[in-house]
Amino acid sequence: MASTVGKEIKKKTKSLVIRLVLLTVYLTSGAAIFSAIENDGSLNEKQVEVNLKVEEIKRNMTRSFNASENIIELYVEHLRRLFQKHNGCRTYGHNNWSYYQSLYFAGSVTTTIGYGHLAPKTQNGRLFLIFFALFGIPLNLLTLQSVGGHINYGIHLIIKYFEKVVLKKETPTHQHIKCFAINLLLITLWLPLGGIMYYYSEKKIGWSFLDCVYYCFVALSTIGFGDLVPNEGKEPNSSYEQGMWIVRLMYLGMGLSLLSSVFTSVCSAAKQIQSLMPCKRGMAY
User: Where are the transmembrane segments (predicted)?
Assistant: First the structure.
């Protein structure tokens, strides 16, 4: 029996590793293709026009108020943020298809989060997106399912160990229900934990703690409104931001895996609860 279980675990672990490798290759190669197709190295006409207008306003204000360019820059940035906050939206206004941005975009497609701050503008890019999503979304779901299954298995092992060693129970009971409860607790704690992380990295752009928790929920539930995007959707330009970029990806990946684990455990828990319920007698057939 033990050898059979061991073989099954090895088989599932091997499957997980293969899926992780395939997903990684798929995302990285897809990002390279998106970047090559969409990145023409120039801003679109509307962005150029807006940038020219902003620069003209800055020059006029510098001359009129006899202030330094840095002060005017801060003032214009402050006005922009006030305008965005007043209108209840955030305009990211860039079409930067660097490799970083393309990889982030590819991840948002396969996870179906779809922030919307970056989208293909060319016909070739849109055509490629269709095929990329058709294969990428199922591959991502299979990978998350595998990770979630391993999380569930780990929780079951912890429950068994705790009940046998600490509680001195010969046979652990109601494992599926307990596993679901632990999963639910983990995903509940995952939101404020992410809120704390995002607050310290995004408070510079005006995010409150509630904004951060809200973003975590919207992202992990794959709703992806796009009203809040870390670092305003810009490419990381420092080692700190690059590190945070990786941490964010890990946070979202782990969070989605926890959700998969919750969905898996809730089915098992429901069956176990149903088996514990007394049979209804006197029912009409």
Answer: 16-37, 97-115, 127-147, 180-200, 212-229, 249-270
